[in-house]
Design a protein that fits this description.
- The chain is α/β, with parallel strands linked by helices.
- It has three domains: about 5-70, no CATH class; about 80-275, Vaccinia Virus protein VP39 (Rossmann fold), CATH 3.40.50.150; about 300-495, Tetratricopeptide repeat domain (Serine Threonine Protein Phosphatase 5, Tetratricopeptide repeat), CATH 1.25.40.10.
- The chain is built from 22 helices and ten strands.
- The strands form two sheets. Strands 6-2-1-7-8-10-9 form a seven-stranded mixed β-sheet, sandwiched between helices. Strands 3-5-4 form a three-stranded antiparallel β-sheet.
- β9 and β10 form a beta hairpin.
- α1 runs parallel beside α3 (about 50-55), α13 (about 335-345) runs antiparallel to α14 (about 350-355) and α17 packs antiparallel against α18 (about 415-430).
- The radius of gyration is 26 Å and the shape is globular.
Amino acid sequence: MSAVVGALQVEQFRAVVAGRLGLTLEGFATPALADLLKRRVAGHGGSCEDYLVRLASDRSWKEVGVLARELTVNETYFLRNREQFVVLAEVVLPARLQARAAERRLSLLSVGCASGEEAYTLAMVIRDVVSEPAWQVSIVGVDVNDVMLRKAERGRYSPWALRALPDRLRRRWFRADGQVLVLDEEIRGSVRFVERNLMDEDSELWRPGFYDAIFCRNVIMYLTRDGAAALVDRMVRALAPGGFLFLGHAENLRDYRGDLQVRHTHETFYYQRGSTGIEPPASVPGPAPPVAVDVTGPQDWMSAIGSSTVRIRELAAKRPLPPRSPATLTAPGPGGLKRALDLLRREHFAAALAVVESLPDGPESEPETLLLYAVLLIQCGRIDRAEETCGRLLARDGINAGAHYLLGLCRESAGDATGAARHNHAAAHLDPTFALPRLRLGILARRRGDVETARRELGHALVLLSREDPHRLLLFAGGFTRPALTTLCQSELAACGAEQ
């Protein structure tokens, strides 16, 4: 007798899977989930209701691993996203070797390790960098899928899994066994694999301050908002101060407000937990040398941001936005902050700046107030102080896209095109809907002669500008309206020879 599975049971299934595995099933059609649920119920016998109750309540039931195999993508390969492993070798390991010099111990975690390629790549990179035998290196791969873990432990792979691995590493660490490539015992023995549900609290796995680096790539993109937040909190707590977190290229933590700072080197983004006083090397410049940017003239970007008319409070009163957006600054505030916003609207920037500085808690009370303070400093031409303020803001909120954008303007004003591009890249990465950093990246690229990049960034900016939030434009666009920014973007594209 087949199980009765209707729309109600499918929705209950979605909710239980979200609760147990943290997975969001919004991308799965109801018929496909109904078929999966029916198969799993039939495999265990009993009713659909009994199956769902046990799935929700029995924490030891291996069924969650079976569902993970059915509902997640496990395809991966060695040295995937090579630039992140270059960061591991050239940034992370030197910094952590220095930080752990007294202990001579390194610990790394591969989250959602699947069949082990990522964890083993970590081992290969570390083997090249850490040559002293006195160092103890622990690498753990964790996944809920026991079948994938057993495959990882066997260390037998198809040539396709090694497609990104240089011949040097292939010859060094693999031997052929018919059509299969077998991983060397030295690398296999350096990684330990454990079966865990990432949604479960686990005091051994998530030891506070334990890991020097955590790779969690292409995992949180499959999780619910609550599931992703819970996992990120666990990972950040488990990182040592100064430890590093790597996500997949399609993932970011722009909504996370904890103790992380975004880093951008080697053409990739990653995160670092609170500073230990040992800073990673400065961002590696791209192929183009620093270019002095012409920021003179009455209509240039920096002049415009210093003479903008911002009617933020009035607009916000008509259409309030959720907290922590740029519009948070525009809501009518008590006392001095309300007065500062009135002065800002009337272009009395110095007076507005003085009011913010005289607030009871100063400009440091909230990240939004500090962001407003940085904008006012730029409008008053105090670029050095604005840059310092943005640095303080990022120390509190390391993934604040607005702060990175303002730093990009400061660096551009100083003639540092490389630094300006780095901060605009960070802003665009942290908030993919933010049009202005894309526009600046396009303009900077055109000025250094990189027409292909300029066209790509300007085209992206043109699309984003059509739906950019008006409050954010008023705060960050230096008096440029949406039509004016669109015209500017089109003019820059025309200068690249792009068709309009």
